[in-house]
UniProtKB/TrEMBL annotation:
It comes from Trifolium medium. It comes from the Eukaryota. This is Protein HOTHEAD-like. Pfam families: GMC_oxred_C. Its cofactor is FAD.
Length: 211
């Protein structure tokens, strides 16, 4: 997935038709040039209470699994998103921020409308997106690339990252995270891989292995 297309992960794979992708790309091209001279301030709902599911649809490794995200299925997650949007809006509308950016102070509706027009995902938008923060959160939700949680410890792998019920197979990557680090997880994943690699070698070679 490229930045030009954006994220299609919030829409089930079977709904990602060629027409939908073309329409999404067209909307991206219609974004005002001013949008590329700034950026987005996001609110992150960390450690969400909402849960989804990931299932294999068959044994063909080339086929994508069935994924249901269930964003905001728990009301507390939606409330946290609303509070985050309120805080971001307050910051962007502050005198300090407008002085720094040398931009005219926009209303809350104008700020929200800019995000809705940016078309960050393929979720159908609603006419009350800028009136209801709850609806705004639901319609503009995205997962920022750092996917994790598909192989939870205790559910898919054990504490040594061995896949339950399968011999000679481990999973040591971000899919075992219950929560992704607040920054780019690359260093955390590399550290975990090195730690588990050394642990495996020490278990196999013993204390005289020099590892």
């Amino acid at each position: 997935m490229t930045n030009q297309i954006g994220q299609l992960s919030t829409i089930p794979p079977k709904q990602r038709s060629e027409e939908a992708i073309k329409a999404f790309m067209k909307n991206k091209k219609d974004i005002p040039i001013e949008a590329f001279k700034g950026g987005f301030i996001l609110t992150k709902v960390a450690n969400p209470w909402s849960t989804g599911d990931l299932r294999l649809i068959n044994t063909n490794v080339e086929d994508n699994p069935a994924v249901t995200f269930n964003y905001f299925s728990h009301p507390s997650d939606l409330q946290r998103c609303v509070e985050g949007i309120q805080l971001v809006t307050k910051v962007v509308q502050s005198q300090h921020f407008t002085n720094l950016t040398m931009c005219v102070r926009e209303t809350t509706e104008q700020l929200l409308n800019s995000t809705v027009k940016a078309n960050v995902n393929l979720i159908p938008k609603h006419v009350n997106d800028t009136k209801s923060l709850e609806q705004f959160c639901k319609d503009t939700v995205i997962t920022i690339w750092h996917y994790h949680g598909g192989c939870h410890v205790g559910k898919v792998v054990d504490s040594d990252h061995k896949v339950l019920g399968v011999n000679r197979l481990r999973v040591i990557d971000g899919s075992t995270f219950t929560e992704s680090p607040g920054t780019n997880p690359q260093a955390t994943v590399m550290m975990m891989g090195r730690y588990m690699g050394l642990k495996i070698l020490r278990n196999r070679l013993g204390k005289f292995g020099g590892v």
